[in-house]
Structures are given as C-alpha cells and as structure tokens.
Amino acid sequence: MSYAEHDYFMLSALQHYLFCPRQCALIHIEQTWTENIFTAQGRLMHNKVHETKYEKRNNIITARGLRLFSTELGISGQADVVEFHKSDKGCALPGFSGKWTVFPVEYKRGKPKQNKSDEVQLCAQAVCLEEMLDVDISEGAIFYGKNRRRLSVVFGSELRSLTKKTAENIHEMFAAGRTPKAEYSKKCDSCSLKDICMPKKTDGKMQVKKYIKNMTGKFL
Fold first, then answer.
1. Tell me, which fold does domain 5-181 have in CATH?
2. DSSP letters of 30-50?
C-alpha cells in the first residue's frame, strides 16, 4: 500500500505511539504540546547535532538534518545523522565517485528504553532512505547521551514488521480522529503532557481541549 502525501504523519509519531497511543493522539491529533526538562534537553541536543549540515572525513560523508519520506509507511520527517560509508556496494551520490553504504544514526538524550520505540523510529528512517535512494540498509545506530555510546540496531524482519504495523495503527487512529482513554502507569510521571492528560483524574472519554473548555466554563 502507498499513502498520498496529504496522509503522511510525522516520523516522531512512531515513538510517541509506542510510548503511549494517547500521548501520540494528544500531540498529533489535538496539537497539544508542553515541554519539561527532559524534552528541553532532547531538543537542545538535536539542535546541536544539526548545527553542521555536512562534512566529509576520509571515506565517510556525514549529513545532518536530511528530509525524509516514505510512501510505503506514509510518513515524513528529518534524520538526525546519516553516514555514507564508501564501499564496493550501495548507492551512488551526486558529486562523489564510487558506491556508498547508508548508515542512519538517531540521537537520544537518555538511555536505552525497555520498549522498541527508539529502534522503530530509526528503522522507519532506514525505510525512508531505502525508498528515496533505492538502496538496501542493513543496520544503523542510536547514540544515547546519558552513557555517550552508540547502540547498534539491525533492521531485521521482526523490527521492520513492528515498524510497519505501528505506522498502520497510527494511520487508523488518525483516520478515526479519536484520542484513546487515559490509563495511568508509572511512565506517566515522566511524560511532559501529564498535567494536561491528567491520567489519574480523567477517564479519557473526552478530548483534552473539551475537558479544559468545560473546566474553564465553571469559573466564568
């Protein structure tokens, strides 16, 4: 299946959905966003990564902030870093001789998570690059700021299937236009939308905007 451009959603929605479908809907359907210390640190880290758009050292070309899209997944977004390694296989690059293998790198503020949200976001970037450059990409890496290390990620069939299924679920949620009900768990305490979502106080049956409007009306 191929999606039309007007049906694309932001690549970051994949991570939001796997963290919490309700958070994903609040951000991408209801256009609700607040920032806490964790999101601020993450934003500053990404801004620093994107300061230099392009550089070449020895046999590696590093590109930052590349625009990405995939008609297969129906997504668009931006890559933190894409490394092109000179090789005897891969794709051709305008202005450079030879072949180049493609190696996407995602930057994260914290540490590796228990779920696969970071890996899925990186895999989606690989799918975009494969489609755009007509190349196969076998692996990439996630750089975690807390331990200052790269975690290698292999784009195997299981991860690719999870990435595709997550994208399909998001498209279905967006098409329905419904925000999932709130269900409190420990991870809610670290969410920047906790005070808006109010998972302990609402059952999620109404949209946040409607809830705020109703509450505001009581004091007018």
1. Lambda Exonuclease; Chain A (3.90.320)
2. S------HHHHHHHHHHHHHT
